[in-house]
Amino acid sequence: MKILALTLLAFVLISCDAKEESQAQPKTSDDIIHSLYIQTKEGDKVSFKIELALTPEQQAKGLMNRTELPEKNGMLFVFGNEAERYFWMKNTLIRLDMIFIRKDGTINSIKSNALPNDMTSVPSNGPVSAVLEINGGEAAKYGIKAGDVVHHTIFMN
To answer: Where are the alpha helices (DSSP H) in the chain?
Structure first.
């Protein structure tokens, strides 16, 4: 009976320890879904669920090797400063719209329907501090244009 009780106690302690360990591990930005919205000049608010690409490793990986992206989802690449940015579609399997954003949240330019696996460099056409990638064609579908404003805490707006 004592052996059974000790075995049971050990099992409970191991289970609790494993549960605490899994809860203690911090989540990466890949695990956390954020939201943002774009205010168009016409007055529409278009909401997106996004992942953040904050580190050089996350930014290098981006949306590579994904076969699909749910509608109104995307990835926001956040940089520490404004600069001319260049993106490409290496190992990206789906068409994307690249929305280049200034530090105040204003959309500088949009590259629509970037082709999968295209190695052509896509410039931001001016200094930007972030790039939002969404499904190809969604910018046009929702009337998103240069001059519209992206609202998210990183833009402090």
So the answer is: 2-24, 56-61, 138-141
What is the pLDDT tens value at each position of the chain, 157 positions in all?
Answer: 444 343 333 433 334 443 333 333 334 445 589 999 999 999 999 999 999 999 999 999 999 999 999 999 999 999 989 999 999 999 999 999 999 999 999 999 999 999 999 999 999 999 999 999 999 999 999 999 999 999 999 999 9
State the Cα–Cα distance between residues 40 and 79, nearest whole angstrom: 23
Per CATH, the homologous superfamily of domain 28-155 is Protein of unknown function DUF192 (2.60.120.1140)
> Which residues, at least 6 apart from 89, have a Cβ–Cβ distance to it below 8 Å?
96, 114, 115, 116, 117, 118, 119, 120, 122
* Domains of the chain by residue range: 28-155
pTM over 0.85: no
